[in-house]
């Protein structure tokens, strides 16, 4: 399996809605920390907190969160995905409530670190982690088996800090401003951040801004100038340069390549 994009503890504002009538041409895993309203086979369902779903390719996607949303998400693909799901006895477009959400979040965090840091054999390790996630999802659904995971204090503090930053990507964030949120010097903050997430805080911030811009572009509700401003860019040329640096495409090329 190949990860196309991944984020853990990703925030969205209240009343955030996804509406993709034609779905996407890849699989999507979602883990909602809070309750959301979601449409499955034309029926609207209010989920329990810590519910997961795997959307099949081209399956109509709709969900809405009345409150501020936190969720883990993975875009992925592969020729053996459905075969592996059958082996695990899990189904696309089906809701699963997990009893050990910290395990799911930690696995997605590891995937994000591997995916964004270009580590040696990272794609292979991401495949292993993704399969481990689905095996645990199957265990939660069919046996109730749990794997113990204990959060470290520093991981909790950085997760909270990162949530604040990613919830306000339009703000003028610097390493110092982020370091102040966890009461650390810039050098110490930088070192710990890179150790946890596999890349520098500024590079992670840029990736988060561009990923948000990608969402806005596909939603087609804003001009490119508006999207640049909403994602923290006061200069449209700077936005274009960083967007192309991350995606290898201009915003217009990205839209043409991803609209179904």
Comma- or semicolon-separated keywords:
260 residues, alpha+beta, Jelly Rolls, Arc Repressor Mutant, subunit A, 2 domains, five-stranded antiparallel sheet, four-stranded antiparallel sheet, 9 strands, 48% helix, globular
Protein described:
- The chain is α+β, with helices and mostly antiparallel strands and 260 residues long.
- The chain has two domains: 141 residues, Jelly Rolls (Sandwich), CATH 2.60.120; 109 residues, Homeodomain-like (Arc Repressor Mutant, subunit A), CATH 1.10.10.
- It contains ten helices and nine strands.
- The protein has a five-stranded antiparallel β-sheet with strand order 1-8-3-6-9. A four-stranded antiparallel β-sheet has the order 2-7-4-5, with no helix packed on it.
- Strand 4 and strand 5 form a beta hairpin.
- Helix 2 packs antiparallel against helix 3 and helix 5 packs across helix 6.
- The longest helix is centred in the middle third of the chain and has 21 residues.
- The chain is globular and about 45 Å long.
- 28% of the residues are buried.
- About 3% of the residues have low confidence.
Structural class from helices and strands? alpha+beta
CATH class of the largest domain: Mainly Beta
Mean pLDDT: 88
The number of distinct structural domains comes to 2
Estimate the strand proportion.
Answer: 15-25%
Radius of gyration: 18 Å
- Low-pLDDT residue intervals, each spanning 5 or more residues: 145-151
How many β strands by DSSP? 9
Return the CATH topology of the largest domain: Jelly Rolls
CATH architecture type of the largest domain: Sandwich
Largest beta-sheet details: 5 strands, antiparallel
Strand order across the biggest sheet? 1-8-3-6-9
Helical content (DSSP H or I, runs of 4+): 40-55%
Instruction: Look at the structure and name the CATH superfamily of the largest domain.
Output: Regulatory protein AraC
Please provide the ordered H/E string of secondary-structure elements.
EEEEEEEEHEHHHHHHHHH
Number of helices: 10
Separation, N- and C-terminal Cα atoms: 22 Å
* Overall spatial form: globular
């Amino acid at each position: 399996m190949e990860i196309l994009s991944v984020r853990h503890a990703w925030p969205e504002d209240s009343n955030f809605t996804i509406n993709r009538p034609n779905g996407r041409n890849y699989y999507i895993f979602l883990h909602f920390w809070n309750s959301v309203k979601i449409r499955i086979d034309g029926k609207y369902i209010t989920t329990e907190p810590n519910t997961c779903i795997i959307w099949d390719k081209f399956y109509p996607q709709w969900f809405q969160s009345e409150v501020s949303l936190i969720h883990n998400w993975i875009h992925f693909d592969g020729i053996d995905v459905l075969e592996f799901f059958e082996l695990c006895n899990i189904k696309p477009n089906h809701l699963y409530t997990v009893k050990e959400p910290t395990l799911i979040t930690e696995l997605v965090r590891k995937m994000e670190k591997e995916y964004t840091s270009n580590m040696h054999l990272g794609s292979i390790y991401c495949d292993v982690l993704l399969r481990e996630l689905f095996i645990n999802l199957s265990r939660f659904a069919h046996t109730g088996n749990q794997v113990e995971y204990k959060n470290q204090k520093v991981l909790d503090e950085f997760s909270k800090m990162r949530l604040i930053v990613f919830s306000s990507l339009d703000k003028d964030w610097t390493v110092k401003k982020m370091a102040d949120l966890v009461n650390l010097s810039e050098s110490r903050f930088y070192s710990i951040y890179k150790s946890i997430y596999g890349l520098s805080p500024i590079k992670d911030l840029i990736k988060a801004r561009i990923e948000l811009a990608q969402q806005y572009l596909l939603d087609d509700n804003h001009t490119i100038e508006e999207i640049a401003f909403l994602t923290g860019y006061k200069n449209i040329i700077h936005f274009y340069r960083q967007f192309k640096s991350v995606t290898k495409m201009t915003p217009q090329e990205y839209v043409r390549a991803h609209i179904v």
